[in-house]
Design goal:
By secondary structure, the chain is mainly α. The protein contains three helices and no strands.
């Protein structure tokens, strides 16, 4: 009944893919089940916060670039 010993923990790449897929709303049921059975919530929270910060910084950079090129800022 306890499959934690048999299943290896998720890799960073699997967690990142799951967080990005969930953010876009395209997470498959198979991957969702894998995440809940083998993943740690703290890893998903940390990657989620980090990816949100990267997205916000990227968005800010694009807006700053556009404003600079338009000679507004």
């Amino acid at each position: 009944m306890d499959n934690d010993d048999k299943d290896p923990p998720l890799t960073f790449r699997q967690i990142l893919y799951s967080v990005l897929a969930a953010a876009f709303g395209v997470q498959s049921g198979k991957n969702r089940q894998r995440d809940f059975s083998r993943g740690k919530p703290s890893h998903f929270i940390a990657i989620g916060i980090l990816s949100t910060l990267v997205f916000a910084a990227l968005l800010f950079g694009v807006v700053e670039l556009v404003l600079h090129l338009a000679a507004v800022g």
